[in-house]
Design goal:
This protein is 42% helix and 15% strand. It contains 20 helices and 17 strands. The strands form 4 sheets. The chain has a 5-stranded mixed beta sheet, with helices on both faces. A 5-stranded antiparallel beta sheet has the order 9-8-12-11-10, with helices on both faces. Strands 14-15-13-16-17 form a 5-stranded mixed beta sheet, sandwiched between helices.
Length: 581
């Protein structure tokens, strides 16, 4: 029988305190066998396939593990709980489905040491991770008596307090060099401080200067203070990055403000950087309204509204590539126009499940949504400045390019290749040199997803398909889709042999169009086409002969062959019956 006394070797705020600092109802405590007084040291994503045991060592001691993709009622939940318990985790969080946790899971949790928590379905993993980490840093000692007592997120108060400690002017910036707060000005600021405050961000040319000189590389790669000596233009500056674990939340800058900086200014900045973590974390993650506004700004930017860049967290003159990931539930997932599950303005389309596959489709969509949650978290951790936004069954990611980097999305796409192929499709658009190019990159990324979906629809069941691609890998197919989009309105007003055959298939559920399509896709090789259709070659020959006799569709005629390629691709965008004649 296990004892239920918390291990006092771990230090940190209690689980009870952490849960008390997040929104009520975000997480439910199902079982806490050691009580909620157990200490918490960190909150991390948990990969159920990664065993955290190491020769008996309690490798997850003090951790809250977020079991992304695991539902409390799923068969995997029990194994995940037991693995977390063996590793000594303080708590494990799973998604709470409609049925809630299974009785055997609750019983197993009661016999262990690890608390079992569930996340409400309406809460996203990204938000839960942010709230828990914010609560954790809020519970840590401030580290500076002068900073204690500030309201969470009071960056202006923090800037003024730190200014008194270092004896200079303070600017608090985010990782993109945008001004979050600055201290009061008791003396005339130097020209750079004036420009930065008036523009609410460090001038781009100055950012380029500091980047080229290697200053930013030094700032982001050390936990210590970095000194920028005075020159004939500007006063001396000290800067330090504010970090929470491996994540850079921003930086604090101290400038000589008409007087020399204090002798212990560097030491004061080190203390201030530790004390600033909960305030910057609060600023970064607290509040659904701010998150929704930021997502709205990202979508506006992707539609071409460059005025939304600052609110979206995007740097105006930095190259970006747009990545689109979409939950996929098979060929029937396409919308009425074949362009996918969303309308052109980014809103989710209504009907989605193919006839007779509603349950399977919904299960696949739920799986896809969980994978999108994971991809959003990966993107947020990929590099500073990576911005994400959700829309229906799609995740949009703006990936900033590094110095001299030609394809910033490559590493992110490489990570997406590991997701299940029948769950998510992901495509990357070309790099946009400026904000005005983001809509084109978005359209190209969406087009890549359409290409991947159409590839999957045209492949025989069970044949491997591509789930991830960049635009330059699918240019011919993407160009065909663009041409078909233009031809489609005209095609509907015309008539001819292919129109007659497609209409017959739609009304009677025959498969003449499928047969002709397979034959053309196989370069008119009857044997290959028959194998893809899973029919005898003689059956296929009969169907092709009947298509010529009934409708005049003869693949040997170059003009008819071209029209068949166009018309049958367009017909495939609309639901129709299946069968054979």
């Amino acid at each position: 029988m296990p004892t239920h006394e918390p291990d006092r070797r771990e230090t940190g705020p209690s689980l009870e305190r952490i849960l008390g600092l997040i929104d009520p109802g975000m997480l439910d405590v199902v079982v806490a066998p050691c009580g909620t007084g157990v200490p918490v040291t960190d909150v991390v994503l948990h990969d159920p396939g990664e065993e955290r045991e190491d020769d008996g060592a309690r490798t997850a001691a003090g951790l809250i593990l977020l079991a992304v993709g695991v539902e409390a009622a799923s068969p995997d939940a029990l194994d995940v709980l037991r693995a977390a318990d063996r590793a000594g985790a303080a708590a494990v969080v799973m998604r709470r489905g409609a049925r809630g946790p299974r009785a055997e899971l609750v019983e197993a949790a009661g016999r262990g040491r690890t608390a079992l928590l569930t996340r409400r379905p309406e809460q996203g993993w990204t938000e839960v991770l942010g709230r828990l980490r914010t609560a954790l840093v809020h519970s840590a000692p401030a580290g500076a008596a002068g900073v204690a007592g500030l309201w969470p997120g009071d960056l202006s108060g923090l800037a003024n307090t730190v200014a008194d400690l270092v004896g200079g002017a303070i600017t608090i910036e985010d990782p993109q060099s945008r001004v979050l707060a600055y201290s009061r000005m008791d003396h005339e600021p130097d020209p750079m401080r004036r420009l930065t405050i008036l523009g609410q961000e460090v001038p781009r040319w100055r950012v380029d200067e500091l980047r080229e000189s290697g200053f930013f590389r030094a700032l982001w790669s050390t936990e210590d203070v970095v000194r920028l000596p005075a020159d004939d233009r500007y006063a001396e500056r000290l800067a330090i990055a504010v970090r929470h674990g491996s994540e850079v939340l921003g930086s604090i800058w101290a400038a000589a403000d008409g007087r020399p900086l204090a002798e212990d200014a560097a030491a004061a900045l080190r203390t201030a950087a530790r004390a600033a973590v909960p305030h910057l974390s609060h600023h970064q993650t607290w509040g659904r309204a701010a998150a929704r506004a930021r997502e709205g700004a990202v979508h506006a930017l992707l539609r071409g509204d460059v005025r939304s860049a600052h609110e979206a967290g995007v740097t105006a003159d930095r190259p970006y590539a747009v990545v689109v990931a979409e939950a996929y539930d098979g060929p029937g997932a396409e919308g009425h126009d074949g362009r996918g599950p969303e309308t052109h303005d980014g809103r989710e389309a209504g009907a989605y499940d193919a006839p007779g596959t509603a349950r399977e489709g919904r299960d696949a969509v739920r799986a896809g949504q969980r994978v999108l949650d994971v991809l959003a978290l990966r993107a947020a951790a990929y590099r500073p400045g990576c911005v994400t936004a959700r829309s229906g069954r799609r995740l949009y990611v703006l990936v900033p390019a590094g110095d001299g980097e030609a394809d910033p999305s490559r590493t992110l796409l490489a990570g997406a290749r590991s997701v299940p192929r029948d769950v998510v499709l992901a495509g990357a658009g070309p790099v946009a040199a400026g904000l005005s190019g983001l809509p084109a990159s978005r359209e190209a990324a969406e087009l890549v997803v359409r290409v991947l979906r159409e590839r999957a629809a045209r492949l025989p069941a069970g044949e491997a398909r591509s789930a991830v691609a960049a635009y330059d890998e699918v240019v011919p197919e993407a160009t065909v889709l663009r041409l078909l989009d233009r031809v489609e309105p005209l095609w509907g007003s015309l008539s001819g042999p292919v129109h007659a055959m497609a209409e017959h298939d739609r009304v009677h559920g025959s498969a003449y169009g499928d047969s002709v399509t397979a034959y053309l896709d196989a370069s008119c090789d009857t044997g290959t086409a028959a194998r893809r259709l899973n029919v005898h070659p003689n059956t296929l020959r009969y169907r092709l002969r009947r298509a010529r006799e009934l409708f005049g569709v003869d693949p040997a005629d170059p003009a008819v062959r071209l029209l068949a390629e166009i018309g049958l691709r367009l017909a495939a965008r609309r639901p129709h019956g299946t069968g054979s004649t």
